């Protein structure tokens, strides 16, 4: 063993303590740390020849890179849909690296059983039935891809084709219908060989992002009995709008289609008594996407995918090699997702669910919803600010009487908050997305005060 590595091994307890102390100082300083910064140009250092050891690497990181990192773990990072990391999830993440389990198989470790348990907990929390099985993936994009890949195989099954064996060329055109599909759905269709143009946008309800179910029925009718994939939204990005899942499911009496529900963060409405009705029908979907590094507040990367068709999932993702056991009983996870090897992402979710339970995470969700509504109400009192949609859940979408990009940059430059610009119904807008476990209405007040000040 090289001297530097041997020295680090000998000093490992002290090195971990030093790292722990630094991490604690970062977390304690989140409220004062600029929420987002414009990083200074950085020149890439040459590849180290001998290395400087862990202590040296930590010092260099603190000096060169840490100052440019955002405060995205803190309570006023409201850009995109970004959660933080609960204390328990952080502990789970530390132990994920410590045990370094390859959670893709069931031999020689209880890691896969822990993932099974965690998937079961999440399934119950989101109100899904025992017919749904699931697996951890890296994020909503991969969760959508897995669900659509299984849907693609189902379409092939209806046509007497195995896409997994014969390829997508044997399948022909696959109609995909959706009202306001997320960009990751288009990306998944491209990766799957179905093509971005396969998605046929369905008319949405007036001033909404929810699909007009009558228009969806007309689109299905026009297919003349050909099976399709329908992508429904349980929470759109701009306005957190929800498709009427029950009404869409009723169309199955007349038309054959695979229902995939993108519930990346809107699925957490199931935890709010006042909003759970928005995901009524989720349990009858063929596949479901839920992103966990959003509202569950686990570290990147972590999401889960569910399906009621595990047999088709295995057909798509099965992996055969002389050194791998044959499929029998409950399949190994490398038969269920694109990855053959993967970190035990489930451990962070297991820790936070074990530590805080459903009630703790319900409190996080309802507090974020309250903060979003509070900000929405405050913004309406600022002259010239206009909400472009009602605050349905945890996102405030609004426009201002000035340049949106300039205001977004001014907010970031203040260090107080971070919002992302968007366009909704042709209007430049700003989005404030609440999903961090630390955020309170007091943080919403600070953001509202800042915007009011910048606009005067």
From TrEMBL:
UniProt keyword Lyase present = yes
According to its UniProt entry, one GO biological process term is: carboxylic acid metabolic process
Protein origin, superkingdom: Bacteria
Point out the signal peptide segment: none
Its required cofactor(s), as named, are: pyridoxal 5'-phosphate
Check the record and name the InterPro entries matching this protein. Aromatic_deC (IPR010977), PyrdxlP-dep_de-COase (IPR002129), PyrdxlP-dep_Trfase (IPR015424), PyrdxlP-dep_Trfase_major (IPR015421), PyrdxlP-dep_Trfase_small (IPR015422)
Q: Which GO terms describe its molecular function?
A: aromatic-L-amino-acid decarboxylase activity; pyridoxal phosphate binding
| Family matches, as Gene3D superfamilies | 3.90.1150.170, Aspartate Aminotransferase, domain 1, Type I PLP-dependent aspartate aminotransferase-like (Major domain)
Key words, A-Z:
Decarboxylase, Lyase, Pyridoxal phosphate
Q: Which residues carry this modification: N6-(pyridoxal phosphate)lysine?
A: 294
Q: Which family does it belong to?
A: Belongs to the group II decarboxylase family.
Question: Which PANTHER family does this UniProt record tie to the protein?
Answer: GROUP II PYRIDOXAL-5-PHOSPHATE DECARBOXYLASE, MIP05841P
This one is known as Glutamate or tyrosine decarboxylase
Name its species: Actinoplanes derwentensis
Record lineage: Bacteria, Bacillati, Actinomycetota, Actinomycetes, Micromonosporales
């Amino acid at each position: 063993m090289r001297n530097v590595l041997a020295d680090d091994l000998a000093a490992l307890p002290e090195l971990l303590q030093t790292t722990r102390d630094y991490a604690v100082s970062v977390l304690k300083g989140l409220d004062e740390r600029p929420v987002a910064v414009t990083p200074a140009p950085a020149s890439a250092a040459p590849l180290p020849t001998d290395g400087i050891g862990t202590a040296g690497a930590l010092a260099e990181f603190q000096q060169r890179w840490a100052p440019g990192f955002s405060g995205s773990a803190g309570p006023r990072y409201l850009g995109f849909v970004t959660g933080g990391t609960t204390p328990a999830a952080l502990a789970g993440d530390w132990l994920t690296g410590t045990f370094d389990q390859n959670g893709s198989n069931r031999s020689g470790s209880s890691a896969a059983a822990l993932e099974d348990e965690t998937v079961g907990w999440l399934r119950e929390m989101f109100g899904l039935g025992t017919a749904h099985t699931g697996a951890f993936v890296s994020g909503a994009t991969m969760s959508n891809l897995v669900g659509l890949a299984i849907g693609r195989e189902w379409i092939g099954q209806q046509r007497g084709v195995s896409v997994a064996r014969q390829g997508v060329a044997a399948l022909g055109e696959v109609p995909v219908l959706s009202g306001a599909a997320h960009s990751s759905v288009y990306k998944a269709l491209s990766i799957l060989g179905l093509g971005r143009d396969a998605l046929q946008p369905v008319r949405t309800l007036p001033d909404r992002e929810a699909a007009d179910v009558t228009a969806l029925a007309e689109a299905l009718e026009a297919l003349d009995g050909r099976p399709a994939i329908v992508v429904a939204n349980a929470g759109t990005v701009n306005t957190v709008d929800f498709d009427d899942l029950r009404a869409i499911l009723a169309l199955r009496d007349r038309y054959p289609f695979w229902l995939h529900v993108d519930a990346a963060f809107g699925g957490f409405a199931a935890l709010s008594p006042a909003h759970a009705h928005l995901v009524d029908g989720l349990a009858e979907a063929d596949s479901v996407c839920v992103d966990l590094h959003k509202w569950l507040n686990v570290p990147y990367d972590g999401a889960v995918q569910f399906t009621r068709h595990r047999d088709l999932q295995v057909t798509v993702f099965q992996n055969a090699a002389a050194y791998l056991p044959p499929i029998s009983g409950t399949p190994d996870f490398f038969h269920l997702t694109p990855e053959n090897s993967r970190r035990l992402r489930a451990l962070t979710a297991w820790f936070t669910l074990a530590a805080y339970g459903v009630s703790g995470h319900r409190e996080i969700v309802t507090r974020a919803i309250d903060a979003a509504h509070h900000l929405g109400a405050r913004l309406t009192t600022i002259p010239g600010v206009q909400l472009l949609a009602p605050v349905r859940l945890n996102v405030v979408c609004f426009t201002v009487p000035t340049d949106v990009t300039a205001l977004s940059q001014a907010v970031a430059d203040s260090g107080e908050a971070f919002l992302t610009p968007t366009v909704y119904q042709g209007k430049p807008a700003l989005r404030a997305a609440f999903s961090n476990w630390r955020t309170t209405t007091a943080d919403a007040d600070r953001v509202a005060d800042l915007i009011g000040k910048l606009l005067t």
